[in-house]
Fold this sequence. Notes:
Blueprint lengths: L1 H7 L3 H8 L2 H24 L3 H16 L11 H13 L3 E5 L7 E6 L8 E6 L18 E3 L2 E3 L7 H17 L7 E6 L10 H7 L8 E4 L3 E5 L2 E11 L1 E10 L3 E2 L8 H14 L8 H12 L3 H9 L6 H13 L1 H5 L4 E9 L5 E2 L2 E10 L5 H12 L4 E5 L15 H14 L3 E6 L5 H5 L4 E4 L3 E3 L15 E3 H19 L3
Parallel strand pairs: 3-6, 3-7, 7-17, 8-18, 9-16
Antiparallel strand pairs: 1-2, 2-6, 4-5, 5-19, 8-9, 10-14, 10-15, 11-13, 12-14
Amino acid sequence: MERCRLRSSKHKPTHLFRRIPVRTLNRLSAAIAALLISTAATQAQEPDWTAIDEETLKHFQAIVRMDTADPPGVEKPLSDYLVSVLQAEGIEVEVFSLDPNRPNVVARLRGNGSKRPLLMMAHQDTVNTDPTKWVFPPYSAERDGGWIYGRGTVDDKDNVVASLMTMLMLKRQGVELDRDVIFLAESGEEGATEIGIQFITEQHFDAIDAEHCIAEGGSVVRQGGQVHYAGVQTVEKLPRAITLTSTGIAGHGSVPLESNSLVHMSKAIAAAADWQPPIRLSDTTTSYFSRMASVSSPEAAARYRAMLNPGSAEGRAALAWMKSNEPRNAAVLFSTISPTIVNGGYRVNVIPSEVTATLDVRLLPDEDPEQFIAALREVINDENIAVNWASRNMRPGASTPLDTDAFRVIEQVMQEVYGATVIPTMSTGATDMAYLRAKGINCYGIGPAIDAEDGPLGFGAHSDQERIIEAELYRFVRANYDIVERLAGAN
């Protein structure tokens, strides 16, 4: 009846409706139908996150329970596990090994090739443990009080399982991809890069070549149980080592000697430790201090803003405060030296003829190593002290730009999932992203939410009670998936 009345009506709305051409109406109807179908398909493809959480826990506990401590580094059981799970879903997998016990797994979901690939990287090995110091056995993956305990829970088996679950979900959901999505589960990150990332980049780079990479190195920082900010690592310092060798005349301890090599060494160590190389801000550290000011108390914000002008009186005062209270923030401003090893002397009554010391040096990415060591020799200024680079794995230096699609997507997802301000960070430690950045891949370090209080209390990475918040593991898997799906999904 209503339809009949509408057709017979002489009101203006009906008159206007009649003026729309039939072809236009048909096109409009088709567009609306397509939109409804697309919306329904999107809703149908939304993962069952309850089931995903359960599967995440199953895989996470399985891999944490595998002892992949490096040294000796036997990642093969974990590699075999990943290969089995991935191949069961019909995902393409390759294995590259320089050492048969230490494989590198590369899985790939192919896109239409309109964009360059996206790489997810995580390492299978962990640092060692002293089981006698653990409340829960280090390879138990014990759940207690909302935490999961075990070696590798936050370094780096959280990223392993997030990458694994992302591959599985993309495959199951049938997500159409503009770019290949690659998952590299590498070996040897904790101390044997020659069988891991170096081997892959030097001999099998075509298997992982990508435009962007997400890996470890960042984290969402919680304070008092509340998210404070999301840190995304975009650059890292270069780890090097310097050996100091002091030589003098050996003699009886009852007769003090001006040539005492131990005395000369003590002065050299003090001079090196007290030296502050020049401060240099980068795009990352400038953005870091600026954004930290936006999420901090007025007093802290003033210090962070002062660091943007380090040569000012306010900047110098802020740096002095940070060296005492926030040494990690101070350490991103200049190349640093930490004396870590001293060897010399063998009897209480013998003045040693030689003493050696090792300095842990972390260079800014653009630091010239030879100019740096020449400046250190001038600082020590002692002809009895030899200052030389020690033999150590030399990682290349490079940074990642912030003005990329990848960083913008990471910002969007972190803001949506965590409600957090995203802050680019410089890592004072080293990751294997350095090798990828040197090859031109834009690398971003991300990670789950962790409590800022955990590290000082002995619950952080490499600690004797390493643990992860179970709910935050699941939230990280979701964030990782959303980042990859948005960055690689077909538009």
